[in-house]
Specification:
The protein is 54% helix and 0% strand. It is an all-alpha fold and 213 residues long.
Length: 213
């Protein structure tokens, strides 16, 4: 049996706590809602994200991945409203989330790490800015990054591994950077010699997941 979450009941329960709702509205940068439904809509809108189609398997472009990575870093140890306040300047600095153009600007000196860091205030700002620069370079070198992850997912889905083992197996493959894929018991159908999977093993001695911060 698949457990289901009653989202309407969650919204209604949350909305009964006025102080909590006020804090959420402040942190996420929207007016205090007048109903539970309005609270739900405002939260979704503040993230500027749309749910993908059920079963959607298409890959995302490098700019989409870069934007998602930057927004994840932007929410690190700072309120979402604080990030949103500075996001237009950050987006301009990152050339509308174009990783290749951003990496080029960083190499030429037209863009500095400090320019990114000013848009990411707080104690984690320096690390978040450096991670943003590393994501730009990674995606400039491997614009098919997301397609590579989908290819790895599809290969692993045909293995003998249990579902609970797949996250660990994925980490081992990406972390080892093993082009030979020695884990024959689990992944005989996954080849890291293929394109674009081999792009995932070029960026650090131990392979690559999200760039180190």
């Amino acid at each position: 049996m698949v457990a289901c979450v009653d989202l309407e009941a969650v919204r209604e329960s949350l909305f009964r706590h006025a102080r909590v709702v006020a804090k959420i509205a402040r942190d996420y940068g929207f007016a205090v809602p007048t109903s539970a439904a309005e609270l739900g809509h405002a939260l979704i809108a503040s993230f500027d994200q749309a749910r993908g189609a059920e079963g959607h398997s298409g890959s995302l472009g490098a700019s989409d991945v870069f934007r998602a990575a930057v927004r994840a870093l932007g929410s690190n140890n700072r309120s979402w409203s604080s990030f949103l306040h500075r996001e237009p300047e950050l987006r301009a600095n990152l050339l509308d989330y174009d990783p290749a153009a951003t990496a080029s600007a960083l190499r030429s000196g037209a863009l500095q790490i400090d320019d990114i860091m000013r848009c990411l205030p707080g104690v984690t700002g320096p690390a978040d800015a450096r991670a943003t620069a590393r994501w730009a370079q990674l995606l400039a070198d491997a614009p098919d990054y997301h397609a590579a992850l989908l290819q790895l997912r599809d290969g692993l889905s045909r293995t003998k591994a249990r579902r609970s083992e797949l996250p660990l197996l994925t980490a081992v493959i990406l972390g080892s950077g093993s082009a030979g894929c020695e884990f024959s018991e689990f992944c005989p159908l996954v080849s890291l010699n293929s394109v674009p999977l081999r792009a995932l093993t070029r960026f650090s001695p131990g392979g690559v997941g999200p760039p180190p911060r």
